[in-house]
């Protein structure tokens, strides 16, 4: 994975997080892969799912980018979030390169964050 791809992947995720902060459903939805867009059908359905099931991603107190790994043959960017309740979760963003060359988010899995000593 090139440094340019790594930067582009991070930019897509950061842009979507910024759209969530502004409650811009259309823009947030635009960073999802075609499969995700088809699954939810429209920006309003997508934002409802994010608000209800991904609160730490929707309204994070803090965001820390971790490793970018290859998993199941595709890039998976790990991001540590501290949610509004103060709990840390690790999000794994599965990325998909589009025919245009642009990266899109093809799914996010939330996991318990590893214990950390600060």
Automatic annotation (TrEMBL):
Pfam families: DUF4864. It comes from the Bacteria. This is DUF4864 domain-containing protein. It comes from Ferruginivarius sediminum.
């Amino acid at each position: 994975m090139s440094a340019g791809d790594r930067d582009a992947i991070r930019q897509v995720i950061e842009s979507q997080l910024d759209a969530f902060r502004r409650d811009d459903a259309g823009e947030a939805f635009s960073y999802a892969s075609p499969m995700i867009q088809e699954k939810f059908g429209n920006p309003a359905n997508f934002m409802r799912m994010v608000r209800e099931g991904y609160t730490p991603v929707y309204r994070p107190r803090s965001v820390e980018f971790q490793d970018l790994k290859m998993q199941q043959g595709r890039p998976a960017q790990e991001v540590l979030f501290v949610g509004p309740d103060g709990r840390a979760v690790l999000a794994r963003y599965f990325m998909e390169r589009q025919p245009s060359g642009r990266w899109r988010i093809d799914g996010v899995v939330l996991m318990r964050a590893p214990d950390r000593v600060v």
